[in-house]
């Protein structure tokens, strides 16, 4: 029993390291999103850190329109990045989980 516990602890540490490595890697995964008409383009990492924003000059004339574009496009980009982030981290966590019947946390 003690050996099993030590094995599980080792596996847990290994999984924690894999999660940290995955988080670092997600800083290099870029997610691009643009408005439907292409007037606004946003790039962020899968960890939801904004890398760039390109704004068409036409949007600079109308603050309210720019605000709307930013909100809509940023929300779409964040949603995409979140899905990638959660899927990658769940996959790593699932690999490291012991097979305990009834504990299907990451299905």
Note down, in words, how this protein is organized.
- By secondary structure, this protein is α+β, with helices and mostly antiparallel strands.
- It has a domain at 28-94: 2-Layer Sandwich (Ybab, Chain: A).
- It is 55% helix and 16% strand.
- The protein has a 3-stranded antiparallel beta sheet, with helices on one face.
- Strand 1 and strand 2 (40-45) form a beta hairpin.
- Helix 1 (2-26) packs antiparallel against helix 2 (63-96).
- The longest helix has 34 residues, at 63-96.
- The protein is rod-shaped.
- Keywords: Coiled coil, Cytoplasm, DNA-binding.
- It is found in: Cytoplasm, Nucleoid.
- Its main location: cytoplasm.
- Binds to DNA and alters its conformation. May be involved in regulation of gene expression, nucleoid organization and DNA protection.
Overall form: rod-shaped
- pLDDT < 50 runs, ≥5 residues: none
**What percent strand?**
15-25%
The overall strand count is 3
Spatial arrangement of strands, main beta sheet: 1-2-3
Described by strand count, sense and barrel closure, the largest sheet is: 3 strands, antiparallel
The third-level CATH topology of the domain at 28-94 is Ybab, Chain: A
Name the helix and strand elements from N-terminus to C-terminus, one letter apiece.
HEEEH
């Amino acid at each position: 029993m003690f050996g099993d516990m030590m094995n599980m602890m080792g596996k847990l540490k290994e999984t924690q390291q894999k999660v940290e490595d995955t988080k670092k890697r997600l800083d290099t995964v870029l997610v691009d999103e643009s408005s439907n008409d292409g007037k606004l383009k946003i790039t962020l990492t899968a960890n939801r850190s904004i890398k760039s924003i390109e704004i068409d000059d036409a949007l600079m004339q109308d603050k309210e329109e720019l605000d709307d574009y930013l909100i809509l496009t940023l929300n779409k980009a964040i949603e995409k990045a979140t899905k990638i982030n959660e899927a990658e981290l769940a996959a790593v966590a699932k690999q490291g989980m012991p097979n305990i019947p009834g504990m299907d946390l990451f299905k």
